[in-house]
Write a structure and sequence with these properties.
242 residues; alpha/beta; Alpha/beta knot; 7 helices; binds S-adenosylmethionine
Length: 242
C-alpha cells in the first residue's frame, strides 16, 4: 500500500462507497499524478479514516477501508508565537510530519507578524499536504490566531488536567530539559508553547506558570523561533512513540 498516492478528502465527499472528487482533486490525480481510469489511490478524511479507492471518471469507487497506524499515542497541542515572514509555514509542515494534533498560532507581546485571513487557509492546506505526505490518518487542526492569554485560557479550559502535561519553552534560565520532564504513562495530552524571535516576556512566562505550565529548556543553544517547535516535537515523539 506504501506506493500508492494519497489525497485528503472532506468526509462529506463520501456517499455510498463513492468519492465525489472536486475539480482540484481530479486535476491533481489525473494531470499531476498521471493516474488513469481504474488506477488506485488512498483517500483519507483527515479524521482517522482511510480508504483504498479506484479512479472512475469524476468520482472514485471505494474498494476497502484501510487500517493506518501512524499516529502517536499522545495528543499534542503546540502553541507557537507566530514567527516573522513565512516561518510559520515550515513550522506547520514539519510539526505535522512529526505528529502534532493541534497547532495554536498565538500573538504574543513580542510577536511581529499580524497575519492576514488568507494565511489560516494556507496553513490548513499545508497541514493537509504534509499529513498526506507523511501518511498520517489525521490532519492536525490549525486554530485561528489569538493572543497568548486568550490561547492559554481556551487551551487550559479544554484540558483534563489530571491527564495532561503543559510546558513552556524558555530560551534562557536554569530550567530542566524537556526530555527529563516528559512522562509517558498512556494516552495523555501534552501542551507545549514556544516563543517568538524576541522571546516571551517575564509576564507571559508567569501567566503560563500560573495556569499549570512548567518552564523547560531545549538545550544550551538558542534556537530560532522556527526551529524550537520542531525540536520540542521531536523530543516528545522520541519519548512517547513505542
Ligand atoms: N531572543 C530570545 C533570547 O535571546 O532569549 C530568544 C528567543 S528564541 C529565538 C525563540 C523561542 O524559541 C523562545 O522564546 C523559546 O520558546 C524557544 N527556544 C529557543 N531556544 C530555546 C532553548 N534552548 N530552550 C528552550 N526554548 C528555546
Amino acid at each position: 500500500m506504501s506506493q500508492l498516492q494519497r489525497i485528503a478528502i472532506a468526509p462529506s465527499q463520501l456517499e455510498q462507497q463513492q468519492i465525489l472528487l472536486t475539480k482540484e482533486q481530479q486535476h491533481y490525480l489525473v494531470r499531476v499524478l498521471r493516474l488513469r481510469e481504474g488506477d488506485r489511490f488512498i483517500a483519507m478524511d483527515g479524521k482517522g479514516k482511510s480508504w483504498l479507492a479506484q479512479l472512475a471518471g469524476e468520482q472514485a469507487q471505494v474498494l476497502e477501508l484501510l487500517t493506518v497506524e501512524t499516529e502517536l499515542p499522545v495528543t499534542i497541542t503546540l502553541m507557537v508565537a507566530l514567527p516573522k515572514g513565512n516561518g510559520f509555514d515550515e513550522v506547520v509542515r514539519c510539526c505535522t510530519e512529526l505528529g502534532v494534533t493541534c497547532i495554536a498560532p498565538v500573538l504574543s507581546d513580542r510577536t511581529l507578524l499580524h497575519p492576514s485571513s488568507q494565511k489560516l487557509e494556507r496553513w490548513r492546506r499545508i497541514a493537509a499536504e504534509a499529513a498526506e505526505q507523511s501518511e498520517r490518518s489525521f490532519v492536525p487542526t490549525i486554530l485561528e490566531p489569538v493572543t497568548f492569554s486568550t490561547s492559554l485560557s481556551s487551551v487550559i479550559g479544554h484540558l483534563s488536567l489530571a491527564n495532561s502535561q503543559q510546558y513552556i519553552c524558555v530560551a534562557r534560565g536554569d530550567f530542566p530539559h524537556l526530555k527529563d520532564c516528559l512522562e509517558h504513562k498512556g494516552q495523555e495530552t501534552i501542551v507545549i508553547a514556544t516563543g517568538p524571535e524576541g522571546g516571551w516576556t517575564k509576564q507571559e512566562i508567569e501567566n503560563a506558570i500560573a495556569v499549570g505550565f512548567q518552564p523547560v529548556s531545549l538545550g544550551r543553544r538558542i534556537l530560532r523561533a522556527v526551529t524550537a517547535p520542531v525540536v520540542a516535537l521531536s523530543l516528545i515523539t522520541a519519548a512517547c512513540e513505542v
